[in-house]
């Protein structure tokens, strides 16, 4: 690939950027110890619309992977939640083996995909990126309230638990904690959201981000 030359074709290829969605996959790869080669897709320069990237993800969103050792041969995969599930199943790690706990874990991944990601993202858009374009307070209030509601769900879930599934770190944690962090470092919304009102969530966030492998994964394909 001319734009993203591949030096190690035997490794899994990651096309990403250090946004919360991108961080999920690099964190999982680091936690799982899967050899991979990372390629930065600069969405600020519209590289996600490059035909070479669209051949991997026709929806022009990061992250995406190409696994030369996929089932039946080379596998191209997009959507961060699908990638997390694929990597967990491929390795037999980061996903409970008990059938009922397994589906419960997947449920919390979907909770992030359908709720936390979209709602936190909309809050960030209107609070930070569209602050000079939309003077109506309605969208900020709406998405701030929904973000707080979702944080409240997490606060209750994590009560008495080290991680979302209990004592074991899983793809549910990996899917979710980068978005909690982004409320602060990405959107400068710590005070606006009132993250101090969710001490259990914030303690869990610190546990997740301070894991050595997860810390490394957070910085893969970092912004220039």
What are the main properties of this structure?
alpha+beta; 9 helices; 53% helix; Glutaredoxin; 224 residues; Glutathione S-transferase Yfyf (Class Pi), Chain A, domain 2
Structure, explained:
53% of the residues lie in helices and 10% in strands. With 224 residues, it is an alpha+beta fold. The chain folds into two domains: 12-93, Glutaredoxin; 99-211, Glutathione S-transferase Yfyf (Class Pi), Chain A, domain 2 (Up-down Bundle), CATH 1.20.1050.10. It has a four-stranded mixed sheet, covered by helices on one side. Helix 1 (20-32) links the parallel strand 1 (12-16) and strand 2 (36-40). Helix 6 crosses helix 8 (199-209). The chain is globular. The model has no long low-confidence stretch (mean pLDDT 97).
CA radius of gyration is 18 Å
Tally of separate helices: 9
* Helix fraction bin: 40-55%
Order of helices and strands: EHEHEEHHHHHHH
CATH class of the largest domain: Mainly Alpha
Category from helices, strands and their pairing: alpha+beta
Q: What is the domain tally? A: 2
Report the β-strand fraction as a percent range: 5-15%
Low-confidence parts: none
Strand order of the largest sheet: 2-1-3-4
Q: Summary?
A:
The chain has helices at residues 20-32, 51-54, 80-91, 99-129, 138-158, 171-185, 190-193, 199-209, 212-218; strands at 12-16, 36-40, 64-70, 73-78. With 224 residues, the protein is α+β, with helices and mostly antiparallel strands. It folds into 2 domains: 12-93, Glutaredoxin; 99-211, Glutathione S-transferase Yfyf (Class Pi), Chain A, domain 2, CATH 1.20.1050.10.
């Amino acid at each position: 690939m001319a734009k993203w030359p591949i030096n190690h074709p035997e490794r899994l290829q990651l096309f990403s950027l250090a946004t919360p969605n991108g961080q999920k996959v690099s964190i999982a790869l680091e936690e799982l110890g899967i050899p991979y080669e990372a390629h930065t897709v600069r969405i600020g320069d519209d590289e996600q619309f490059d035909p070479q990237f669209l051949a991997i993800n026709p929806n022009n969103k990061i992250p995406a992977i190409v696994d030369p050792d996929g089932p039946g041969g080379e596998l191209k995969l997009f959507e961060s939640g699908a990638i997390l599930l694929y990597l967990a199943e491929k390795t037999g790690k980061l996903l409970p083996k008990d059938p009922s706990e397994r589906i419960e874990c997947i449920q919390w991944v979907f909770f992030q995909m359908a709720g936390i990601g979209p709602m936190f993202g909309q809050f960030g858009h209107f609070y930070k990126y569209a602050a000079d374009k939309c003077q109506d307070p309605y969208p900020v209030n709406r998405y701030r309230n929904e973000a707080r509601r979702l944080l409240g769900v997490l606060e209750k879930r994590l009560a008495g638990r080290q991680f979302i599934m209990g004592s074991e770190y899983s793809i549910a944690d990996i899917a979710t904690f980068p978005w909690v962090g982004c409320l602060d470092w990405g959107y400068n919304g710590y005070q606006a959201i009132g993250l101090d009102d969710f001490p259990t969530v914030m303690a869990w966030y610190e546990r997740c981000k301070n894991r050595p492998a997860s810390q490394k994964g957070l910085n893969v394909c970092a912004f220039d």
